[in-house]
What does this fold into?
Amino acid sequence: QVDSFLANNSLAELSITLLFQLKSGEVLVGTQYDVYRYDSERGRFETIEFRFEGNPQRPLILSVNQSRSGDLWLGTKSQGLYVWTVANQQKGNANLFQVGLSDGLTSTAVYGIEFDSTEKIWCSTQNGLLKLDSRGNLLERFSSSDGLQGSDFNFGASFKDSEGLIYFGGINGYNKFNPVFVEIDLDPPRILLIDIELAGSKTITPFIAEEIQTLQLTHKDYFVVFTFSVLDFLDPEKNQFRYMLEGFDPDWIDNETRNTATYTNLPAGDYVFRVQGANSAGVWNREGISLVVRVLPPPWHTWWAYCLYGITFLFFMWIFKRVYDSYVIKKRAIQMAIEMHETENRADDDMQEQLELQDNLVKSVYRHNVATLSLVSDYISRKSDYLPDGLTREAAQGSIKLVAALSALEDCLYYKNDGLLADLHKYTDILVSKLISEASVRPDTIISINEVSTKLISAEIATPLSIVLYELLENCFQHAFELESPANYIHISLDIEPTGSSRECRYRLVVDDNGVGCPGNIHLDTPETSGLTTVHAIAEKLSGSLHTSFDNGTIVTLVFTQTVPE
It folds into this structure.
């Protein structure tokens, strides 16, 4: 029974270029664009997505063979030879690496691949027959001068019989040979530099070109042509060359069978011209020959020319400086006279501004002191409403402490931008240091955390906040903690954040302690003590809100919004 894989559409392409059976028994089918592997269990072909190293485009595969170790060798059209290693096959990795990169085989069309008994590789190409070692390095190239039917062979015309004889077919017949009896001369050929041609039809004779060690060129030698030769006359048309001018060429230049190298307008400097060559059998002389090339700069680029340029430049700079100095001195004299007159006028203006500034400072201090005394008066008035006659002395003492606290605020005031500003962070440190010594528990059991903003704020806002801080902290140190509590803390924070308006800021003051909380007979929403009443009154005056909570202590939060003075 014959099954047609084309009729049942198992293969996507109708043009079959090669068939090959792997040592594992699998069958590979090559088409013009892809390679397929036949899955006998499912009766279908799977595409092998080969990735060719250094070649973004997929070349046409012309030949395939498998080595004894299991590596799969693939010959392509005009792209050389690729190998699919056993390691990549086992991993399912379809990456192929290219061989013969250093031997100029990357553009060769490989029509047939056969392995001899020593695992040497024989390839028929469009340019003779190649013999490679097991790693793909070129050992020798054979041509029609070695007895081949011709230099060009046919696609798919290769075979190895049971006796180890290898057959390759070409356009003029076929060649049969036993690779065991093919001897290879691996001695590298000799290379000579036979001619050097310079601009103006100047030529160095072959004898001098062979003996010369250093070539010196001037700016008049704007082009130079090197001619070289490989002393192998078996098939001289197949001799290959590559060259490089060290210091100018970034890499070797493969010149194929051309034996000349031309350079034009070389920059001044020292170079080394190197040549490597291969005979018709593909055996390269990697040592090659070398020639030191020294290109002299033109006269206008020599060191003495640059010295002359420098002296000329310095002379003109000296002349220019003398003219410029005279101009600058005259201009400076006129400018100084104008500045002296302006300085006199500014001195009068500065004196007037200082007088006005001092007057504004006096007025600002006066307004601040009036506001402070007014707050103290309101505080004492409200506190006296809650004091029985027997507590008059205690009320007076409390008033004195408040006045002392406000006096501490005076040490934290600064005059800036025509106004008084206060540092509440510094004031809080002073206040805590005073109150902790009068606390109801031992001072060493209290930890205070000051996170009040260090930003300076207006004295009109700082003054009522200082009273709120005093009342809340004084209450914490006197009543918040149990007498035998070994660890107590107070956390004070003041955050100042801008609101949507460009001149409004949101103030948030929080005093938090881990004390016993608020007694049951005291209601913070409707306080009956003078201190809490004062805090409520200030919160109302600032149009703010006062919140309290009793989670593991007492937390009092005052939030209000104020316009920042210009």
The chain has four domains: 49-181, 191-300, 301-372, 398-563. The two ends are 103 Å apart (CA to CA). The CA atoms of residues 103 and 390 lie 116 Å apart.
